[in-house]
Fold:
Amino acid sequence: MSSPERAHSAAAVPLPPPRPRITEHAIPGFLMCVPLSLQAERPADARMHRLAPGRRRISLPRALGQFRELYAFLAAHSLVYLLPTRPGLHEQTYVASLGAVLAHLPEPTLVVSSFRSEPRRGEREAGIAFFEALGVRFEPAPAFFEGEADLKPLGGNVYVGAEGLRTSESALRWLERGFDMELIRFPMRNELFHHLDCALFPLTREEVLICTAVADPGALRAIERHASVIDVSLSDAASGITSCVRIGRFVLCASSIDELDADDEAYPLERSKIMALDEICAKRGLTPVFFDLSEFSKSGARLSSLILHLNHANF
Structure:
């Protein structure tokens, strides 16, 4: 066989596709899910119970428009995968509860959630099917664990994990035993702060925003051994100042202030949150970017609920 023939023969042999890996590449990777099945008629948490049924009714076209704005910004600065939407999974778009990447391991691993909320349990099956098709390394968690919404990295193998409302102590012990983690428990007792991201946000590798008013003193002391705590007020936390996602120098946060009148009772709360985050970011050379996600707030969600980190290169 001549040399050109050998080259042609070799080129014709298909090579197996490379196995995707969750790694700390320079390009941040995220997962989102288009809210095609989004509904909020049935209250799922204390915030939703506070809204009259008519105010929980979501405009799907409006929600899709708000989602597209957030997706477009994120996709311009990162690689964003879209999880296929399954009919009947009304909260599937809130992918932060679907899992959490443990980036301290030699091969970062995605831990898939086990939902306490019965209506959300189908999201686990949908997530596993997607991750199997993608070929990423993952481990299903035992009951109950609700993903990066309840688990935040502080650096190295140190994480803060919510305990009580959505994530169980037994799941936290399973994480510690199986993945060589140092896990600081953050007890959750306030139904208005149902996930950890309602009260805590790692802003940099050295600093973390915490609503200390809802934090256990022992947890605070443990966190302070690994990072500096930036205290945020109870009202700012309730408005979503810790429910953020950082990508490079940008800190993404939700705010509906542009559609509020100055005499609306929510206006001073939104204004306070924006001013506080502006000040925090300015001191650190960061830029806050605000998105109107008012349709998603009807189901008690904030910006961080819509995004799952597939790596931690966003810092």
Q: What stands out?
A: The CA atoms of residues 95 and 306 lie 6 Å apart. The first strand starts at residue 29 and ends at 32.
